[in-house]
Design a protein that fits this description.
mainly alpha, 9 helices, about 60% helix, globular, binds zinc ion
Length: about 220
């Protein structure tokens, strides 16, 4: 998510477009929805079709036709998940599915295997997290998480698909807090931030539906 934010933010600056940060963050973790499929349907397809560059490009064709350059930061956010993040760490990606069933990654190119729990990955993830948080603060983008905006509700997806498994361990048995506490802190930061965003939006909706006075629709 940190990587997608930095890339999307950079692209939006270069292209002079506005970005919806919650949507950008959700797109960046959406490929890992196959973890949920795996749990629900016992499917062995992690890092499969949802991590394919071809699938991502096909899905984005209509988005590019409609939104043109505005779609670029979101596309970069989505493909950075598997083309940079998962490619460096773990590999084993069906990057060209359905054209090819070959698995891709840095390790497949002959480099040493980097696991999620390796010190290289921990250092990479923490560095990206710190840089992204600094940009979030300096650019004042953090404010979006404290506003009651309907689009903030998309953050329920990372809350349940990524942040719960990686922090409290649900639906798995091992918590990141036990395995890699340093990374768990970064995850908990996003968990709290996204929970605030969802909560702020629900409070705004409640006030709008049941409160008196301000009936202005949510942005
Ligand atoms: Zn992934």
């Amino acid at each position: 998510m940190a990587l997608a934010y930095l890339l999307g933010k950079g692209a939006s600056k270069v292209l002079h477009t506005k970005i919806n940060i919650p949507l950008l963050l959700v797109l960046s973790i959406l490929p890992d929805i196959d973890i949920v499929f795996g749990v629900l349907f016992h499917s062995p397809f992690h890092r499969g079709p949802t991590h394919s560059l071809i699938v991502a490009a096909l899905i984005f064709i209509p988005v590019f036709i409609i939104y043109r350059k505005k779609a670029v930061p979101y596309f970069l956010g989505l493909i950075s998940h598997f083309l940079i993040g998962d490619f460096i760490v773990g590999g084993q990606l069906l990057l060209l599915w359905p054209l090819s069933f070959s698995r891709f990654g840095l390790h497949e190119l002959g480099f040493p295997f980097i696991s999620i729990y390796s010190s290289v990955n921990v250092a990479l993830e923490l560095s990206l997290f710190v840089i992204a948080t600094l940009v979030l603060i300096i650019s004042r983008d953090w404010k979006v998480f404290f506003k009651g905006r309907l689009s903030n509700l998309v953050l329920i997806i990372p809350l349940t698909t990524v942040l719960l498994p990686s922090t409290i361990g649900y639906p798995f048995t091992d918590s990141l807090l036990v395995i890699e506490p340093a990374l768990a802190l970064a995850h908990i930061f996003y968990l709290v931030l996204f929970s605030i965003a969802v909560f702020a939006t629900l409070v705004s909706l409640y006030r709008r539906w049941f409160g008196s006075g301000n009936k202005k629709p949510l942005a």
